Amino acid sequence: MKEEIIIAGFGGQGVLSMGKILAYSGLMENKEVTWMPSYGPEQRGGTANVTVILSDERISSPVLNSFDIAVILNQPSLDKFESKVKPGGILIYDGYGIHHPPTRTDIAIYSIDAMNTAIEMNNSKAFNMIVLGGLLKVKPMVSLDKVLLGLKKSLPERHHTLIPMNEAAIRKGMEIIRKM
Q1: Quick one: which of 24, 49, 155, 175 has the fewest CB in 10 Å?
Q2: CB of 37 within 8 A of CB of 64?
């Protein structure tokens, strides 16, 4: 098993956190892991992306030009990365702020209404966990138990009280993702 993933959106959407939680989860499942963030000086509001590789074998390089899975959270990221999903790959996107949805026919495309769901849950900070839940429903590359441990590892201890809310958001994302 080897999954080459990019998660891309605006800074402040939790893109890097999602990648970090996936990476920690993979480590706890004894997988080989890379986590490579990329963002401009405008970390909040500018574009940000992270590549994560989870593998049962050694990883030769963290640098990728194409991806098995793309999780896309804004139009500039869709414009940049849709063409870089490998044929037969997966693209997951939140339609909030996407004006021109993906059009490729050689990949599986999934939509998740994460932003509106986060607003309905009265917690916009749960947005990225809803998206993560959708990803894990489509491609269960790590177990939910390990994701919750990864969440605990990546959150400062003072925020551990938020873990049940994040678990609920992950489970909600698993419920609402749909294939296009």
Answers
A1: 175
A2: no
List the strands of the sheet with 2-10, edge to edge. Answer: 32-39, 47-55, 2-10, 67-72, 85-93, 108-111, 178-179
User: What three-state secondary structure class fits 167?
Assistant: helix
In whole angstroms, give the CA distance from residue 14 to residue 64: 21
Residues of the chain with pLDDT under 50: 42
Q: Closest Cα partner for 104 from 126, 119, 89, 117?
A: 89
Strands in the chain per DSSP E: 2-10, 32-39, 47-55, 67-72, 85-93, 108-111, 178-179
Write the pLDDT tens digit of every residue in 106-141: 999 999 999 999 999 998 889 999 999 999 999 999
What is the structure's pLDDT at 168? 94
Using DSSP's 3-state secondary structure scheme, residue 10 falls into strand
Query: How far from the centroid of its chain's Cα atoms is residue 108's Cα?
Result: 16
